[in-house]
Amino acid sequence: MTTADKTSGNGHSGHPFYPDHLLVEGIVAVIVLLAILLVSQVWQVPLEEMASPSDTSYVPRPEWYFLFYFQLLKYFHGPLIVVGTFVLPLLLFAALVLLPFLDRKPARGVLQRPRSLTAGVLAIAAMILLTVVAYQEDDSMKLPPVTDQQVAAGKDIFYRFCILCHKMDGQGGFMAPDLTHIGSRSGRTYMERVIINPKIVSPSSIMSIVPLSDAERHEVSAYLSRKK
Amino acid sequence: MGRIYAFLDDRLNLEPLVRAIADHPVPDHANPLKTPKALMYCFGGIAFMLILLQIVTGMFLMLYYVPSPDHAYASVTYIQDEVMFGSLVRAVHRVGASAAIVMVFLHMMRVYFTGAYKKPRELNWIAGIFLLVIVIGFGFSGYLLPWDQKAYWATTVGINLVATVPLVGDFLANVLRGGSEVGALTLVRFFVIHVMFLPALLLVFLAAHFFMIRRQGISQPL
Amino acid sequence: MTATIAETTTSRRNFLANGIKAIAGFFILALGIPLTGFTISSALKKDKHDWIEAAELGDLSDDKPTRITYHYRRKDGWMTTESRKTAFVVKEGNDAYTVFASRCTHLGCGLDWDATTNQFKCPCHGGVFDAHGNVVEGPPPRPLVKLGCKIEGRKLFVMEA
After folding, report:
1. Residue B88 and residue C34: Cβ atoms within 8 Å?
2. pTM surpassing 0.90?
3. Helix, coil or strand: residue A46
4. How confident is the model at residue A28 (pLDDT cuts 50, 70, 90)?
5. Dihedrals φ, ψ of A31, to 5°?
6. Pairing with C65, which of A83, B120, B126, C125 sits 20 to 30 Å away (CA)?
7. For the CA atoms of chain A, what is the radius of gyration?
8. How distant is the Cα of B11 from the closest Cα of chain A, in angstroms?
9. Closest Cβ opposite residue B89 in set C34, C42, C78
10. pLDDT class for C1, splitting at 50, 70, 90?
11. Segment (H or E) for A68
């Protein structure tokens, strides 16, 4: 007897692959295909504007199954980024490849393998959690596209409040940075985060919080994004 | 059908081969008709079905798609708006990709939690890990092809991740891009990786995966 | 007794095998119909033809076919291209013209006017047409294709059928 015979259920019991098992597999396949066709009919596959390498304000998001990983990368700052992009993936890959050699006990039931169970459940939980957080942060950052109306309204607001401290096109205050070319330096999401709470972005900031509605804030960031 | 089979069997002696594949016993604990729990033994087969679906829809999409920055976006728009069933075929390829990732992951979870990777199936588990990486590679390389904003910028970010790898990162990123910027060379590279290199690797590892399953059988019930 | 067991096993097998055939049929239809439509759809689209300004009447010869080249824009899949084609204009009478596509009706090779014999000759398989487009010799099955033509001002316009 070979090793395979001893560990597999391939004695004389069981059903033949054809037709018994293939039929069951086929029924599940039909259900899955129907589901895919249904989703494909209902869901409009996104196709955005044509690629424009000069448009640096675009905030790219990966496909949903990569989101957890992109969220994870947000937590590795500066030189630590290599931990997220290289060390962790390498460790994970090595752990997966070596798993059968690290875990050699014959016990197979997951309840008899508490460490494997914990590792597996934690990994799945982490992936789900990171994906959920990524979606939440995306939602809070969703910005309406820039329109000329918004830019004009934003300009109004800017010249009422911001101009008191910031310089723009040669006029305005001198307490805060010149924003004449801010659109070529910063993205809209960054600007919005500064407007919502400057201290979160830069703890030493002395900028005051101007009470703007979400719509007004979008207008200001739309205006500033055009100042290139 | 029967007569064609008889003709071929007469000359090629197919019967032993067909019997070996068809009569191969599948254990009761992997038969969903016996226990509903056995549905989890379908994940691998369904993942394979989805891979076949991706190959078929991908082949047909290539009838119209052009991997060049001048034409890629226009050809995808053409598929989407002017080709009969075009938006459906594109959507099936896109949804099927997500479904394939999900199925491969579920299959892996089944093997992990039932300890099916243990001796003698270590090598098949490793082949499976490589298949997982290949499937993820399909997802990443396919994302650039429509050449829309999302495609361009997500790929720029993805390649910049590679660039952070110590010592060889910048070099690897340049090789992936075919230069220092994401452009025409990158698009052709990603296209050829997506439709030639990865499928070739996929078929090799799938063949090894299936060969080992047949050799070793489905793991025993717990 | 064993015979009945064998019979039930066989009928059960047949039943399951038919189920698999039905599933295979479903897959072939569910994917085959969209993919067939997908493949043939661009072939089903009819080209839109417009009147194309092709020549000045003054440039056309009275006694022998004149080769003209006309330019037109054509939608080619996802792009619009500028294409060129040639044709022969034969003057049939006062302000009466016939325009022949310069393609052999055999397998589509380009034709030449042979001034020594006053015939159109195809270099590929030896098809020969007279000045009115009729087959004189060789394998071509049909006379030359005539293009629609009209005269406006002193200009000749053509339109593909």
Report:
1. yes
2. no
3. coil
4. very high
5. -60, -45
6. C125
7. 28
8. 23
9. C34
10. very low
11. helix A64-73
